[in-house]
């Protein structure tokens, strides 16, 4: 699955390497959504068709209907996207509990290890200017921040926009401009949890447009990582988009992000750099089906975020590069359905008798092959031997997501003095993280 993201990293690397000798290396824009599902885009079958800019991007570019993230949760997925390596290798996993998801709440002690070579580091070496806008989620302690790992600029937050907190038991999440915080969610960057109103997406759009204008006029190659998070709970949208969709606040958030995609693509064209810019759109993990009406749609696919079924890991994906990428391919899907004992959050260790699906005749993984059948018996041996061979050669990274400590929360981030927002945290008391799902 993660081969796809490895492939993307390779494409970037090869493009940079191959074109280095020429006059103008290509620019890169990755637009990564948060918890947006495969089925949330009109082009992927969402019936309200409220994503006109993404649908146009798909028409003009290439749709990748079988694109997978490396993990069904924010942090490990993003770590894989940035490093081109699976969470087991880049350290974004836990050994506290078998098969549990793990991520980076603000009590997490770990983060992206220095030895991981991230995409912006490769590009920086090739002369690029790199900016991340939005959610980082690869560690909130300063040594893990984007500017320590290849980015030149940052506007956004190290963690999810949960809150508001009282700054006594838990500090509000800081928002950074480059290496220093410029405020905190709910205090300086408002998210009204009653109405869902927030201007954050508009800020993220404006930051992107300003960066593109500056970089286009400078003439140097650039990489923009637009990691917006309005479709992650708590959902939000700005006033002009509130109540505008047929899908509630979630749909409003999607509409505003879609508008942002349009703004960015139009800006690239207006600046005359579109034909030298590779743009890639995707999401970090599947829609949060447990959030019900506050979650998105995974189309026909089973389950969603936090599960390794199709709905958790298969992501909407569109590549766009005028005159380089030819308009792409269609979508073929059928309605999904529930399967007793499979579509469940109960944690059953199936490693002794793994579930097998025939993704040729059953691409949605709706009908697992029964272990007593000859088809299962004929195929499982070959698969298990590949697994064993893989395990023999696997070199796991040091797990970063095992230890949590209230003292490492965002109490006094860099820049807090200037704002009078340095708060006192408790003494250090590391404990094994307890993961809820
Ligand atoms: Ca996510």
TrEMBL record:
<dbReference type="InterPro" id="IPR000917">
    <property type="entry name" value="Sulfatase_N"/>
</dbReference>
<dbReference type="Pfam" id="PF00884">
    <property type="entry name" value="Sulfatase"/>
</dbReference>
<comment type="similarity">
    <text>Belongs to the sulfatase family.</text>
</comment>
<dbReference type="InterPro" id="IPR017850">
    <property type="entry name" value="Alkaline_phosphatase_core_sf"/>
</dbReference>
<feature type="domain" description="Sulfatase N-terminal">
    <location>
        <begin position="26"/>
        <end position="351"/>
    </location>
</feature>
<keyword id="KW-0732">Signal</keyword>
<protein>
    <submittedName>
        <fullName>GALNS-like protein</fullName>
    </submittedName>
</protein>
<dbReference type="InterPro" id="IPR050738">
    <property type="entry name" value="Sulfatase"/>
</dbReference>
<feature type="signal peptide">
    <location>
        <begin position="1"/>
        <end position="21"/>
    </location>
</feature>
């Amino acid at each position: 699955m993660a081969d796809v993201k490895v492939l993307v990293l390779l494409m970037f690397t090869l493009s940079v390497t191959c074109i280095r000798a020429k006059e103008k290396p290509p620019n890169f824009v990755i637009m990564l959504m948060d918890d947006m599902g495969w089925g949330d885009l009109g082009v992927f079958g969402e019936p309200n068709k409220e994503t006109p800019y993404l649908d146009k991007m798909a028409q003009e570019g290439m749709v990748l209907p079988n694109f997978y993230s490396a993990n069904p949760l924010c942090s490990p997925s993003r770590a894989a996207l940035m490093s081109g390596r699976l969470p087991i290798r880049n350290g974004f996993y836990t050994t506290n509990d078998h098969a549990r998801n793990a991520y980076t709440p603000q009590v997490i002690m770990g983060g992206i290890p220095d030895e991981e070579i991230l995409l912006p580091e490769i590009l920086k070496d090739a002369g690029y200017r790199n900016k991340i806008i939005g959610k980082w989620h690869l560690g909130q302690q300063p040594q893990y921040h984007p500017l320590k790992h290849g980015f030149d600029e940052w506007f956004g937050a190290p963690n999810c926009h949960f809150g508001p907190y009282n700054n006594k038991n838990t500090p509000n999440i800081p928002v950074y401009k480059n290496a220093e915080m410029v405020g905190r969610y709910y205090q300086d960057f408002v998210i009204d949890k009653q109405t869902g109103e927030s201007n954050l997406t508009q800020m993220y759009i404006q930051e992107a447009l300003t960066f593109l204008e500056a970089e286009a006029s400078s003439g140097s190659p650039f990489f923009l990582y637009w990691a917006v998070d309005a479709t992650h709970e708590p959902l939000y949208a700005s006033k002009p988009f509130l109540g505008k969709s047929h899908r509630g606040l979630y749909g409003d958030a999607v509409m505003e992000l879609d508008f942002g995609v349009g703004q960015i693509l139009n800006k690239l064209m207006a600046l005359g750099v579109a034909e030298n810019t590779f743009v890639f759109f995707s999401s970090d993990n599947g829609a949060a089906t447990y959030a019900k009406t506050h979650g998105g749609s995974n189309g026909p696919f089973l389950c969603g975020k936090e599960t390794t079924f199709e709905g958790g890991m298969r992501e909407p994906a569109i590549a766009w590069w005028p005159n380089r990428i030819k308009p792409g391919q269609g979508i073929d899907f059928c309605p999904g359905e529930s399967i007793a004992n499979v579509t469940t959050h109960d944690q059953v260790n199936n490693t002794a008798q793994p579930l097998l699906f025939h993704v040729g005749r059953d691409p949605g993984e709706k009908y697992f092959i029964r272990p007593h059948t000859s088809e299962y018996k004929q195929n499982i041996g070959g698969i298990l031997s590949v697994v064993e061979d893989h395990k023999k050669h696997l070199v796991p990274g040091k797990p970063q997501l095992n230890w949590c400590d209230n003292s490492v929360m965002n109490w006094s981030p860099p820049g807090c003095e200037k704002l009078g927002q340095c708060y006192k945290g408790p003494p250090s008391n590391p404990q094994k993280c307890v993961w809820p799902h």
